[in-house]
């Protein structure tokens, strides 16, 4: 076997790459923009489900339908260069962060034009040009990574922060505890956003957790923690704006528990034996898209026809994305062994 | 004999144990209300109640550790860790406690625990969900490592696992759950350390387990059409390993190939090759070969994934190159 | 390779072994007995240090000097059949539970008469005839086992409980969190006794822990938690008596933080760079043996001469133990491969 | 050249990196105030301050995971997990994140992280503290696995580890810290995947790494007295493995033995044996043999522990049986 390539570094002093001066936060998005993003995500997920049924998407597919307000509100409240580190139910986060819908759909199709060239799939979207540092499929396993990214920014002296999305199922894992403690004791610039959709697969939070108010767990580490209505995108946006500003000052981490609900099964294979139709119906009435639409109409910010136009925009966006995915080539078979290690061409 | 699936065979063994041994209980993530992520325990919660079928938090280390503790106290727990990938979070418990306690305590304590997990690749689940780490467990003294390939194996080996007074890592291959085969209704046990010579032949020995056994078997059928007569061994358990069966076969065929989904480098195939060449050196007409997974994290794309896994065509090509040697 | 032995079980219905009716708790030990136990432990540890220096004991040796009140008070408050599951600094717990000092010393010497036949060594004492279910050397790694033993007793319907000793260093490990949550949510009969000696090796608790009041961590899991002066054996005894009684009723776990101090280094190799002489001196004044001795003399419960006689008893006990260890044979070399798995003779 | 210890050699590389690369920082349990459990980082906290030398909580998973995250963000962390035994608590981070991220992300992300840990047995630390799990790490694609045997190796390989843009598992053998050897003052790098042929010979190839290299070397000296001329290979890195050096040697000597502290069954020696017999089948005069640790949890008693570990006498006996074959 050949000696593996290790990029030769010379013995000159190395310094930390300083980040470019932080770009001003994009002008705060208005409610219409938030609504459009949620509609885009919803449509995208519906199409993904359809493509799964048609065998275009394989493996595990976890839909974000019902939880759109969480990622949409949270990510709109962050700076574009703040890191996103999230779980496997992450299409919504990716779209909210501005990843190209076509490249995300292509990834679900396993195509070479996908955000990770068809290698990652639905659970492992990455686009570092957008500071989107990945979807991860080991429950809570990404929390230490979020701490590490935050540590690096603290070390470099930037004011970039990390948003770490986790599920309610994460909170009983050991790594949740280790990460919260480390973040607190080292005052790391990370905001943990827990999407408490009440279930981890088919297990209701209250059946397996000693403390069901998750944000109180975070308080036990001396972390600023809050609970928010995760079905309300405006509330999400406000809470994350406030907490992110605090985290950005270097005072240490924050924790936000967003109460929400997924309208579909855990994954495409879920028979949903563990919850009643009534419970799902109850939550569907709180649909974040319907809620905001109705509010905006009631306030006369928009008209019904605007809504239809927005929906049409989502439809087109997703249709185009799907066509792009369909038309894209598979990754070449001879790429199989590439990028396990650094290659000379990378250096 | 009735034909049932691999899934159903496992269910039969578990139900039998729950019905006949009060010391047996099951714990795991989503084995109750959800019915098991591979539907193996569907309906058990309703049938046996919360005492015997325990949904746990997502916390692999404490679930496995609690299984070890309960086993030390004389119970007979079965812990499901859903997939082998998540067992990494409990591996300290398995290696530093379960496997060592009998020895460390000078035989005062034992750990009669069954740990079930689904392994293997091929369903496009991506890099973090497609591992085959059975070689790691087989490396650890104090553990039994079982990898059933057929419904018949699955029931008989799982029944035997519950007789073991030592920890058993029971690895089910995800792709096999729907596979059907003949399985007696009544309980039976298959001994650990006894492989099944599923096809006799004289030209080459193909050694597989779990999913890879079937590839070996199908390749053997195709080879027969070309006049090459392959013997196929289904290992059933990796630890203990039935070296007698392997060596007996190789002394007859003078050639051997190990087939495995796992990464080749440092994998279990190397152990088998090392044993064969050590004990049957003069009987070998060709080196022992391995037809293994590529040494890469698993890609999602279906064609890439298949390219990363051993294929029947690869086995056939290898056999032909060896027979011609 | 031969088929490994698996004991054949027939297909007859199996039932859970019910425990013998719980024996009444040994009459509550008086302060003199507690003092004697502490003196025995102290002397034992001093001798172990000496034997280490003389090369009779090898590997890691973690002395309990300074912390005697914790194990002594706690274990005296438990029933003899309650399980003890403890860490690697466990000679004190073993002696307090009544393991034969000669067989404990022999274990440190690696002799065949040792409690685990010379296989376990200082960090892995076991004597299941005394329900002493082991010393463990992976920080926090024994907490899940304690939960499992407790689960088994709950399952069987006995009222045996588990005492799980841990160090302050354990509390940031993931397993601490997983174990506390599980114990709480399943109401397991386990009492966690955290020996907070302020340092994990050379790292002061306050430097690495978001919350330094450890018992408050336990409260975040809805577990009854208290703090106690771990240098006061009477207080220890009282606290554990109270908590154990509660745990025994089946109401769920308890947590006790015992503030204490080790007078020696972490292990025999420790240069103690991380703490000042002054700090050690401060704590030495709180020596649990001196404190109780002075109190008993002040109260006229005992006389100085009694104290000398008690010390003499400890000296003899430990001297005999050491002679026993010295005189014992090494384990036979041909036992090396035994007991990795069950053997036919075990069945 | 100055003679320094293995420990000091490691210290030199770490100090050099701290001095010359602002992106480098160290984290680990007790590496600061305590000075490192094997005194490797003694004085570093005082010299470099808390920003560069971080004492961590006892929480292996988050420390390693934070190292991975910081590496992804362009820093160059070195995480010490004290001993390989505790790395089991961080192994999910190492396997599911560090080793896979470059591949999974399609080369968008890399993890230039150095993870140091002490491994090996022989100091009577008992079953939970005496493991040699390097074969596990070598099995995982995406990791480099380094096991220095000498002070010279230790410095040169650790310097190179900091040049790697991929995760390096750097395994120091506990018994070697006080060992002395010649080490240049100035910085130098030893390439990964290049073994050192430490002694040339024609009768048999002895292959070792870390602690086992020294046993092989001493055995070779004794064998010389008996007129047997052994070649001794110090692997330096297990992954990448210098198969060229191994095969070149075996093609000359026609016999090979792998020496390893680790459990034999399913261990790294099996991989080496499998490779040799595959690629040098016709050159072998005897099967490749393994002189490995016994397949048992490690006992505390000193005589038992030595009996569980490979000894020079065992190597010599094996060599003689092979040469006579
Ligand atoms: C360590 C680990 N254990 C188990 C699983 C299997 N699993 C995948 S998702 C999931 C439930 C997670 O629930 P939650 O965190 O609430 O996220 P949600 O699916 O509700 O978004 C489980 C148990 C896993 N991926 N990783
Ligand atoms: C998982 C794990 N990590 C690290 C170690 C090394 N180690 C041994 S003892 C110790 C400190 C533990 O401190 P604490 O729990 O406070 O117990 P104390 O020694 O103070 O009694 C450490 C870090 C270990 N044994 N296990
Ligand atoms: Mg959830
Ligand atoms: Mg401590």
Kindly summarize this structure in a few lines.
The complex is a heterotetramer, with 2 copies of chain A (347 residues) and 2 copies of chain B (325 residues). Chain A has 347 residues and is of the alpha/beta class.
Q: Mind telling me the CATH superfamily name of chain A? A: Thiamin diphosphate (ThDP)-binding fold, Pyr/PP domains
Which band does the percent of strand residues of chain B land in?
15-25%
The CATH first-level class of chain A comes to Alpha Beta
CATH architecture of chain A: 3-Layer(aba) Sandwich
Largest sheet of chain B: 7 strands, mixed
Overall 3D form of chain A:
globular
Supply the CATH architecture of the largest domain in chain B: 3-Layer(aba) Sandwich
Task: Report what the structure shows.
- The complex is a heterotetramer, with two copies of chain A (347 residues) and two copies of chain B (325 residues).
- By secondary structure, chain A is of the alpha/beta class.
- Chain A contains twelve helices and eight strands.
- In chain A, helix 4 (101-108) crosses helix 12.
- Chain B has 325 residues and is of the alpha/beta class.
- In chain B, the strands form three sheets. Chain B has a seven-stranded mixed beta sheet, with helices on both faces.
- In chain B, helix 2 (44-48) links the parallel strand 2 (24-28) and strand 3 (53-55).
- At the A-D interface, helix 5 and helix 6 of A face helix 3, helix 4 and helix 5 of D.
- The structure holds thiamine diphosphate (2 copies) and magnesium ion (MG) (2 copies).
- One magnesium ion is lined by residues 167-169, 197, 199-200 of chain A.
